[in-house]
Each structure stands twice: as structure tokens, then as C-alpha cells.
């Protein structure tokens, strides 16, 4: 079991007087930042805020910390350091990728997108239709929001170059079988781009085992700074046209970052690896195998989240005025819970705030998913999202508040 005193002690937000008494249930929009990230960012700005990779000491330390972040995160995810790149956001990273595919693909080629996605992993790809690329939509079940792999198989043929889908949706919450989907796409000769933004906060995935060609997530949702992190296999990186400066074309992790990186935030991302290792040591899971250690911490987080999530799903399922989007079994989903009612989601979130619950309401850039499930995006949903640092007491507080406002 998670040592919750230790976990919450690693997040300065929980000792911040201005946040006292407030239970945070909008983690899908961005998590609290862990202390190692804050410490590294502060140190960088105080001691290393110079151009990195020059011969003087401060510059060498700055570059070394940036390299450390890339290497340690890569090790946790089971990929090579050269496969990991940083950008200003996942949305920006996806847009740059789409431009590369636009140049590489020919008119008549096809890509597959879903209507389960956040717009960041849907909109940029759909725009390729402007250049004659066929865009095929893998549609969700209108009742459940589920993506059926058999339905994907009917869309795949030798014209498909790329399949884009989420590890889990930011409103449906169901965890999609990435390895199975990837295998089907690869069998048809297509690459895959997986949006892991809504999954990675619940434990870094073993991207190597999943087999994804591209895996995207946001550091500010995994307890870090505001950066987008992208994993791309080298064979694909070398196949696509360079989008960076021409003289950076030979460096895989620079090919898809047209602007220079935010040095301080990249360096601070090593604090996320610090935190995972701190958790592992505290719980007797430390190992010389970074992937195995990361997987063990992932499973520890998921077990805690699943236990807390089921009562929330049960509560929603028993309310006639509430429609729960996605599975009602906590083991099948992330703890990102979207509730559709006759009241606009933003109005419910405002009512919850008076009960000390910080939650969100709206469409969350998942307009296509909401429309696909016949939910009015103008009303949107109330979204309740939490991670492993959430406590049972906060869940109890949430359920009491929901009972009062619904």
C-alpha cells in the first residue's frame, strides 16, 4: 500500500496554507508539481541559467542536467535516450509531427483518427485532408464510448500510413489496449501515434513493451514542468522529413523541435524520475532495472487509484440524474470521471467549489467524443479526476459534496 504521508510530503501544495481544506479533483488538467522538480527548477535558475554545453562549469552542469532528464525518463519507459524529445506542449508536438507526415505522405494515402480523442491528437491529423490525404474516423460506441478493435480492422488496408488513438480518453477514461491496437496497425503496414496525456499521470508506461512508434504525454500532468514529451522510434524519425534546423537533422531528438528547448524545464524533468525512484525506495521496490522499477511504481499507483475510484463510479451509476461516461469498472479505466447531467458541467463545478472541491466543467477539448456519445458539448460534463496522491478522506468529501449539489 502507498505510504500516503510520504507521498503527500513530496508535494509542497499539500502544505500550502492557501490550499488548505481544498480537495483537488482536476488533475486531468494538470497535476501538482513534486518537490524534486521544483528543487531542480529553482537550482537551475539560480545556478545554471546560462547557455548549456559550453566549456565553462555552469554551462556544463546545465547541459548535463538536460541530458540526465532525457536519459532517465527514457530508461523508465524502456526506450533509447535518442528517442525522447521535449517541446512546449503535446499539442505543439503533434502539430509539428503532422507537418512532417504531410510532407512524407502522398495524396490518396490514408490515416486513421478516432472521435474519442482530445483535439490535440485529432485536429492536426484531420487537417491533412487539405492535401489530399484520406482521413478515416474510427468511431466510438455512442452508448459506452468504447473503441472496438474489430471496427479498426475494417478501416485498415495498404493505403493507411498512420493510426492515431489515445491510451485513454480524457472524458471516457477507458484504458485502450495499446499493444493489441499497435500490433493490428503494424500488421497492416501502418505506424501508430498514441496520445498518452491522460494515462501517463497514473504511472509511466513501458513504451518499449507497448510497441508504439510515437507516444506523447505532458510533463505538467506527470508532476513536472510545462513541457510536452514525445517518444519516437528512430526508424520513423529518420524516415520523416526534418522539421528542425537543417544542421540538427542528424540528431533524432532535435528533428521535431523547430524551436530551441526550454533548458530549465527540460532539466527539471529529471525531478520526475527522482520522484519515481523515491517512491520505489520508500516501498521496497528499488531496482537496478529502471523499467521494472517504473512498472512496480506504476502498479502501486494504479492499485491505490482503483480502490478509491470504484466508490465514485458506484455513486454515479446509482444516480438517475447522472450519466457516467465510460466503464463503471474501476479496473478498466483511469480515475478521470466525466458526468453528464441536465445542468451544465461548469455550473456543477462552481457549486462544488463552495464545498472545498476543486473540479472542472466543460467540453475539455473532447467535443468530438461528447458529440459521439450524444452529449451536448455546450453543456459539457462535470469532470472529476484524481491521481495517486488523493486520499480516502478526499474521496469521502467529494461524495458528500456531490450528494449535496446533484
TrEMBL record:
Keywords: Pyridoxal phosphate, Transferase
Gene3D superfamilies with a match to the protein in the record: Aspartate Aminotransferase, domain 1 (3.90.1150.10), Type I PLP-dependent aspartate aminotransferase-like (Major domain) (3.40.640.10)
EC code: 2.8.1.7
InterPro entries from the UniProt entry: Aminotrans_V_dom, PyrdxlP-dep_Trfase, PyrdxlP-dep_Trfase_major, PyrdxlP-dep_Trfase_small
Superkingdom of origin organism: Bacteria
Gene Ontology terms for molecular function: cysteine desulfurase activity
SUPFAM superfamilies membership: PLP-dependent transferases
All copies of domain Aminotransferase class V, residue ranges: 24-240, 301-398
Keyword NAD: no
Name assigned to this protein: Cysteine desulfurase
Gene assigned in the entry: sufS_1
Amino acid at each position: 500500500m502507498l505510504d500516503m504521508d510520504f507521498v503527500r510530503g513530496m508535494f509542497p501544495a499539500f502544505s500550502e496554507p492557501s490550499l488548505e481544506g481544498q480537495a483537488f479533483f482536476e488533475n486531468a488538467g494538470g497535476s501538482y508539481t513534486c518537490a524534486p522538480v521544483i528543487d531542480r527548477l529553482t537550482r537551475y535558475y539560480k545556478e545554471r541559467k546560462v547557455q548549456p554545453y559550453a566549456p565553462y562549469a555552469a554551462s556544463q552542469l546545465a547541459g548535463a542536467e538536460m541530458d540526465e532528464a532525457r536519459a532517465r525518463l527514457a530508461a523508465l519507459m524502456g526506450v533509447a535516450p535518442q528517442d525522447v524529445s521535449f517541446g512546449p506542449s503535446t499539442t505543439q508536438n503533434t502539430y509539428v509531427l503532422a507537418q512532417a507526415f504531410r510532407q512524407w505522405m502522398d495524396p490518396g494515402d490514408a490515416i486513421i483518427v478516432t472521435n474519442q480523442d482530445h483535439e490535440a491528437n485529432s485536429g492536426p491529423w484531420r487537417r491533412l485532408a487539405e492535401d489530399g490525404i484520406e482521413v478515416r474516423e474510427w468511431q466510438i460506441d455512442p452508448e459506452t464510448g468504447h473503441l472496438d478493435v474489430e471496427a479498426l480492422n475494417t478501416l485498415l488496408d495498404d493505403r493507411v500510413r498512420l493510426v492515431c488513438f489515445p491510451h485513454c480518453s480524457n472524458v471516457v477514461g477507458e484504458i485502450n489496449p495499446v499493444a493489441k491496437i499497435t500490433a493490428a496497425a503494424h500488421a497492416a503496414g501502418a505506424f501508430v501515434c498514441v496520445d498518452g496525456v491522460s494515462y501517463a499521470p497514473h504511472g509511466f508506461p513501458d513504451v518499449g513493451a507497448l510497441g508504439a512508434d510515437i507516444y506523447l504525454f505532458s510533463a505538467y500532468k506527470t508532476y513536472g514542468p510545462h513541457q510536452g514529451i514525445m517518444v519516437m522510434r528512430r526508424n520513423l524519425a529518420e524516415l520523416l522529413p526534418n522539421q528542425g534546423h537543417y544542421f540538427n537533422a542528424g540528431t533524432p531528438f532535435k528533428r521535431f523541435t523547430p524551436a530551441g528547448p526550454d533548458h530549465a524545464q527540460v532539466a527539471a524533468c529529471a525531478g520526475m524520475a527522482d520522484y519515481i525512484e523515491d517512491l520505489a525506495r520508500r516501498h521496497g521496490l528499488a531496482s537496478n532495472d529502471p523499467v521494472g522499477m517504473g512498472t512496480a511504481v506504476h502498479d502501486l499507483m494504479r492499485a491505490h487509484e482503483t480502490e478509491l475510484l470504484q466508490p465514485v463510479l458506484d455513486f454515479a451509476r446509482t444516480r438517475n440524474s447522472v450519466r457516467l461516461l465510460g466503464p463503471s469498472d474501476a479496473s478498466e479505466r483511469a480515475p478521470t470521471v466525466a458526468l453528464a447531467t441536465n445542468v451544465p458541467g461548469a455550473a456543477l463545478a462552481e457549486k462544488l467549489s463552495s464545498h472545498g472541491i476543486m473540479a472542472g466543467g466543460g467540453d475539455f477539448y473532447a467535443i468530438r467524443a461528447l458529440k459521439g456519445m450524444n452529449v451536448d458539448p455546450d453543456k459539457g460534463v462535470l469532470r472529476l479526476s484524481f491521481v495517486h496522491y488523493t486520499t480516502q478522506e478526499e474521496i469521502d468529501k467529494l461524495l458528500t459534496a456531490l450528494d449535496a449539489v446533484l
